[in-house]
C-alpha cells in the first residue's frame, strides 16, 4: 500500500468501538475508512465512555513504550530507531485494549432546541480553556470532536427499550470551521484585522529537521501539546512542510515501522509522493532523502502559509481548501517571515477561540 487509502469506502454507518476491542482493531477500522477517531462504549453496559483517535493511540505508545522519547534531547545521546524494532513493538502494542486509551468527549442531543453552535464551540470543544502563553495551537485538553445522539439508553421504541446511547453523528472542529468559511462575508469586522494583531505571531513555533525520526517528531508534539510541527532542512531554517496528527491517517499495525523513518520520508510515504513502503523496507530511498536534501525532497508537498499582515479572514480562507468544489481543511496555516521561517500558526482551535471571544 502506498500512502493513505485513496477514495476510501464510505462507512455503512457511524463507526463505533467498544472497550473490549484492541488497538489493532481500531487502527484497521480507522484506516479502512480513512478517519481519525470514533466513539467508544463500555463493552459490558453499552454506556458511552468517550472517544478514541490516532492521537490517543500515539500518546499511549509514547508514554507506555517509549517514555524516554518524551525527554528533550534523548535522541541526540542515544541510538536511532529502527523499522524492525518498531514493527515488533507494533505487534505487542496493538494487542492492548482500547479501555486505557480514551479521552473525554461531550455528548449533545440532536433535538436540543435551547443550545446554539456557540455553546457547542465553547463547552463541547472547550476552546475557552486557558492555553499556554507560548503555544498558540490547540492543547490536547481541547476536545476536537463531540458526539451527537438522538435516543437515550432505556428510551422506549417500537422494538423495545434502547440498550445503549444511539450516537448518530460526530461533529468536529473542522466541520464548524468549514461552516464559518462558507459564511466568511457575514463575520465580524474584527476578522479584517491582520493576524499579527491577534496574538498569533509568537516567534517560537516548534520545528524539527527533516532527518528527525518520525516517532521522535510526534513525541515532540505530544510533549508540547501540539497537533502539528513544522519541518525544516536544518534547525531554525525556512519552513518546508508540516507534520500533523492527521498524517497518521491510514497507519495500520503492519506499518508501525514507518514511524522510524526520517520525518521527511514519512511525509512522502503517507502522502503518496513517490515513495513506497517496499522501498523503505529495502532501504531504496530517493537520493535526495538519503542525502538529507529536504528542500528538494519535500518540494512536491503543499505548504499553506501567510504573512503576518494577512487579514484573519484571508487566513481562514487558506485554512479551507476549495479544490474540486469541496471544502477540505488543511489543518493549519503557518505565518512566515520574509525568509520563510515560521513565526506563528493558525489552527481550527484558534479560529473557534476567537469566534467565542
UniProtKB/TrEMBL annotation:
Record's keyword annotation contains Thylakoid: no
Keyword Repeat: yes
SUPFAM superfamilies in UniProt: CBS-domain pair
Domain CBS span(s) in chain numbering: 8-68, 298-357
InterPro entries: AMPK_gamma/SDS23_families, CBS_dom, CBS_dom_sf
Record key words, sorted: CBS domain, Repeat
GO cellular component, one term: cytoplasm
Protein name: CBS domain-containing protein
Organism: Chlorella variabilis
High-level lineage: Eukaryota, Viridiplantae, Chlorophyta, core chlorophytes, Trebouxiophyceae
